[in-house]
Specification:
10 helices; 7-stranded mixed β-sheet; 27% helix; alpha/beta
Amino acid sequence: MNTPAPAHPDLRDNGTMKALVARRYGGPDILAIEEVAKPVPRAGELLIRNRASVVTAALCHARAGRGLSTRLYFGLRKPKWPVLGTNFSGVVEAVGGTVTRFQVGDHVAGTTATNFGAFAEYLLVTEDGAVVPRPAGLSDSQAVAVFDGAVTALPYLRDSARLQTGQSVLVNGASGAVGTAAIQLAKNFGATVTAVCSTANLERAKLLGADAVIDYTAHDFTRNLDTYDVIFDTVATSSFSRSRRALKRGGSYLTTTPSPMILAQMAYTSLIGGKKAAIAFTGLAKPAELVRTLAFIAELAEAGRFVPVIGATYPIEEAADAHRLVDTGHKTGSAVITIGGIPD
């Protein structure tokens, strides 16, 4: 056990930090760098000097306030959390009383889940939250990327699909953060993987371990009748209705995008035999479960069996450009933002 270190006294004043802030809903142009209050760790909390984060499609939806469900959660008229960001990687700068698992100077990484705040120079996480030692051999940018899509993909493949050695998996949207993670995780589970992506990303999918690739501009994978045990639709460009003919009997269609239709399909297919539809609400996972997920991914990364895929990197001052990229729906791997100008 590490000996707890006291919080730095100079952080007890009303210091400030830089943060990427969205005070209203809208496009990337609403984002601004502001000086905001620096947090102070209380009992059981870590103050982390943050060095990197990622921009995801979910965070872009939150920034834009797209859809009623988004507004109901993030605020009807204006954002409840003006500083977004979930993934983080950096150094413990101070700890509150009672902390024993970490000490000042530890390199850590993780996710703030539904608390956000990772688009800032400093953030607070609880000692028993979703934070783990940064995987050995990875930079801060690589650490946020390695956990980016994998935190979503792992529960889907391991828990929802209960993927087994020898099964066949199709990953639709195999070039994004979740898709590139899904290819690697499925291979680690011993599955045969087919990756669906654009022409430009076919070779990357092969390098990540895909056994077969499908160019969606040239072929419709749903025409491959009774072929796959699992179809993991990471981009929601298909549907259970369209994809079910490509599933083997007892196969599962998984999607990351909630809708009334998929919830209804999940309910009735769980009651009858044959092919299943499913969605997993990975963002609602409890901290202890997230820690187990992060630790599993870190172990694979340290063993060289899972690699981060970074499509683009921006300093936080240019984060609006990262949001614009993600808004196109055509990013590859993770869109990383670096924070504070500190080299990895």
